[in-house]
Design brief:
single chain; rod-shaped; about 0% strand; disordered N terminus; 2 domains
Length: about 350
């Protein structure tokens, strides 16, 4: 949800954000001038009273001067005026100080009210953003479930096709020939699985799988993901990444929204070779404070999320140690820009891997 959307929702709602501080329209907000004060540059009631008192004071002084006996003038009233000033001036200063303190107290109250309104605006914006994200596009988990369902249907069709083929009838082998063949045949090395005999997954396809499909029409991304799920080691990393990406999306954290600082390939190689701490700190290039705070809180409060995060970090660590040995700098940079790598940067920084 963008700021423009939030603004339009705010304008269209008659009650603003649903809180007293967030209401708009003709209702008083409590943040502007109140009572008889004027904000248009004119004089208010206080200024008018001050002007009248000043004029009255000048008239009193002028009357005393004009009504003084002939030959005495103002000098006769000087002691009286000084006495009046000595009595009135401290009172004036006391009331000036009292007025200043009252103004400061009012300003502090207005600041607290304004801060509360800002906090409510921010809370409402985050709430709307999470609701919009929850009702938006399907998550990565749903897409992967669709892929898995399609793969299961394909495997079922292949199994049905293979089971319907009957083996051709072969002549029986004589017992003596079978015995001689068993004696002449040496022992065969067993234990080689079909996974070990399969061709390794190309680096480009593996990197594409770690980024997951961009859209539902991304055929190349789905093809790379299917190929990765057939590879045992690649499937472990992909499934662990799927779990953490799904859990992060529940808090409105999406890897496409993060813009981490990309580390150089040599920093990635140092990490693959076992270096930890400050030397590989550039790998924790995620600077989004909201995502870091939400992830840290979830890590502390949710044991399922914490276990999934640590499991993903271990899988990624092992995978990258093997990947780095045969990858070029360009392939390492491409892997570092995938959604899986961004999840590693975020979770690694929260877990303290780069401290």
């Amino acid at each position: 949800m963008t700021a423009q959307d939030a603004a339009s929702n705010h304008r269209s709602s008659p009650t603003g954000l649903g809180t007293p501080e967030g209401r708009t329209g003709n209702a008083p907000s409590g943040l502007g001038p109140t009572g008889g004060d004027r904000s248009d540059g004119g004089m208010g009631s206080a200024e008018m009273i001050a002007v009248l008192l000043s004029c009255l004071w000048l008239l009193v002084v002028l009357a005393l001067y004009l009504l003084a006996p002939t030959g005495q003038g103002l000098a006769h009233w000087t002691p009286t005026l000084l006495t009046a000033l000595a009595v009135a001036l401290p009172l004036v200063m006391i009331w000036v100080g009292t007025s200043a303190l009252r103004s400061a107290r009012v300003m502090r109250a207005e600041c607290r009210r304004l801060q509360a309104a800002i906090d409510n605006l921010r809370h409402s914006y985050l709430t709307h953003a999470q609701q919009s994200a929850a009702a938006g596009e399907p998550t990565v988990s749903q897409k992967l479930e669709e892929i898995a369902e399609a793969a299961r249907k394909t495997e079922t069709a292949l199994a049905t096709f293979q089971s319907s083929r009957h083996a051709p009838t072969r002549p029986a082998i004589p017992a003596e020939a079978s015995k001689l063949a068993a004696e002449d045949q040496g022992s065969l090395a067993l234990g080689t699985s079909a996974e070990d005999m399969a061709l390794p997954l190309p680096a480009e396809q593996f990197i594409r799988a770690l980024n997951f499909p961009e859209t539902a029409e991304d055929e190349e991304g789905f093809a790379a993901l299917r190929a990765a799920l057939k590879d045992r080691k690649a499937a472990q990393v992909v499934q662990a990444a799927q779990d953490v990406l799904t859990l992060l999306s529940q808090d409105g954290i999406y890897m496409d929204d993060l813009r981490p600082d990309m580390a150089r390939p040599e920093i990635w190689r140092q990490f693959a070779q076992g270096t930890r701490g400050r030397a590989v700190a550039p790998l924790g290039g995620v600077r989004d404070r909201t995502s870091l705070a939400l992830t840290s809180a979830r890590m502390k409060q949710d044991p399922i999320f914490r276990d999934a995060a640590h499991h993903f970090l271990r899988r990624f660590d092992r995978m990258f140690a093997e990947f780095e040995a045969q990858a070029s700098d360009g392939e390492i940079s491409a892997l570092g820009d995938t959604r899986t790598a961004r999840a590693f940067m975020l979770l690694g920084r929260v877990a303290g891997t780069f401290d």
